[in-house]
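Protocol step 4 of 6: structure prediction from sequence.
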Amino acid sequence: MKIRSLTELDDQLSKDLSWRRKEFTSLKFMVSSSRKHEKTILMRASIAMLYAHWEGHIKFCAQAYITYLKHVAPSYKQMTNNFIQMSAGEKFKEGFSIKRFSSQQEIFEYLTKDQDDKFDVNENVVIDTESNLKYEVVFNILGQLGLDTTVFELKENFINSKLLKCRNAIAHGDRLSEQDLIDTHTELEKELLLMIETFQNLILNAAENKSYLKTA
């Protein structure tokens, strides 16, 4: 994926969201128009697919943003500290032990040097949804990218106790009560697409406002 401008970033994110939004609409129609004996099965399938779009688009947005920043390529010393920390995680992931003095010295020198190098990390490595995009993982990705976390702070219960709980139960072949299915599916239809769009907007606003750069 090549993203060389704000326009291309916007275009890539919009395209990825577009087909997901169509599936949201199709799933909603299929569930609402299904016969009673089909509805339970379709709600189970829908919850699993809606979760997949949640994890998929968050990951796509985050990796696309990093791809864009790699093209813009400011130096680390120009960027906010979260990006220096991000690069450190990738740099020291092999053969590194925080208990060893040599490792402690190495990371100290890395974090305190002039940081003239251009921003360059592997987006496939540093962005990890852990195949289980719970609230803590979302919060971690927001922090990595230097994005506002407050917009999701009231969503912890919904993400962990509704979306993830039911999705994981379905994925593991467990049976849910009909009421749990109805309540969860109704809330997902109401909340999830808006949360996905909110995350995308955070990315686009950060890129447009150059929030990745330190203020003078």
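Step 5 (inspection) to follow. The chain has a mean pLDDT of 91.
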